[in-house]
Amino acid sequence: MMFGLWVLPWWGYVAVLMVLTQLTIFSVTLYLHRCQAHRALELHPVVSHFFRFWLWLTTGMVTKEWAAIHRKHHAKVETDEDPHSPIAKGIRKVFWEGAELYRAEAKVKETMVRYGEGTPDDWMERNVYSRHSVKGIVLMLLINLLLFGVVGITMWAAQMLWIPLFAAGVVNGIGHYWGYRNYEPKDASRNLFPIGFFIGGEELHNNHHAFATSAKFSTKWWEFDIGWLVITVLSFFGLAKAKRVAPTPKMLPTKTQIDLDTIKALITYRLQVMSRYTREVMLPALSEERAKAGKAGKLLLRKAKTALVRDTSILQPAHKLSLAAILENFQSLRTVYQYRVKLQDIWNRRAATQAELMQALQEWCKQAEETGIEALRNFSVRLKTYVPQSV
């Protein structure tokens, strides 16, 4: 059949393809990712089942497998056990063979048992979607042939490549390799672009890793998450409900003392607080040292930001050597770096009581203000103004 039931100009086929592939992207980001893997979103059963059906037609992916593999990725991120870390497996491997890595992990029973709980287990899942995953893809090919004729084969091929390329390759690969970082979680996640439009908001991958259970991926005023826009529209019609979003730091300007409310707030806002520390303390100190450094010093400080702000557990050997040299040669950077580590250590004390944490933070602020570093003193004063969201 040369021509199908629906004859279009060339740009019409492209437009239809974009709509179909974007629908698949929304099925992945809204249903598989935000709803099933992280439980950050509730979807109406009609919407949820539509996404399941569409994924069966266009990807053949099984909900339990996708959710389990993604949960394991977060649990074992950037280690050898991470199913698709470009840090552990190499960017080329993950970008070009991301789908193969997914299929290999889906065969690991332990992964499915440990990380696949709570996913759909109804009659349709057991007898159609999981049992006959390939048949959905074949049905999609037949539908494309009927509607668009021979050109439908090309459209079908593009549909089949869309998720392996953009989800498995771009998000899982490049999203841990290239881009900008708003936050410093213990992984290499990056935001690919501040406007999350083409791949459903998944472009904001660093934001997601920082706040994995948030249904909204954008966190800055200048970022846009089209997936959140769709959630907002669905919510308006009672078809979706966001269960959690990233916390918004709240401050009380008149508050001047460290108390239990401060501790509760900082534990909740810790990633935002450390991002602010980088912006208001670390980077100004680095700029000052660069301004007065000689040629050798400037060379040493050329890539200092990564070494100074990244968690040491994920630093590359070259950056660790650079960090050691920087801390040895630049007193002010050594001081602000040490205070950064001490601040993180306070809320990492799992066995400490709230009273002990409060005392430790009070001492941190006292010592920080006595260093003579203006940026550090100002940060300490502002730290005292944080309050929990409920206050």
What does this protein look like?
- The protein has 391 residues and is mainly alpha-helical.
- It has 19 helices and 6 strands.
- The strands form 3 sheets. A two-stranded antiparallel sheet has the order 1-4.
- Helix 10 links the parallel strand 2 (195-196) and strand 3 (224-225).
- Helix 17 (331-347) runs antiparallel to helix 18 (354-369).
- The longest helix has 28 residues, at 10-37.
- It is elongated and about 80 Å long.
- The model has no long low-confidence stretch (mean pLDDT 95).
Helix content: 55-70%
- Measured between the Cα atoms of the first and last residue, the distance is 67 Å
Give the averaged pLDDT, no decimals: 95
| Low-confidence region ranges | none
Oligomer kind: single chain
Using DSSP, what is the number of strands?
Answer: 6
Note the total helix count. Answer: 19
Order of helices and strands: HEHHHHHHHHEHEHEEHHHHHHHHE
Read across the widest sheet, the strand sequence of neighbours is 1-4
Helix/strand/pairing class, anyone?
Answer: mainly alpha
Main sheet overview:
2 strands, antiparallel
| Approximate shape | elongated
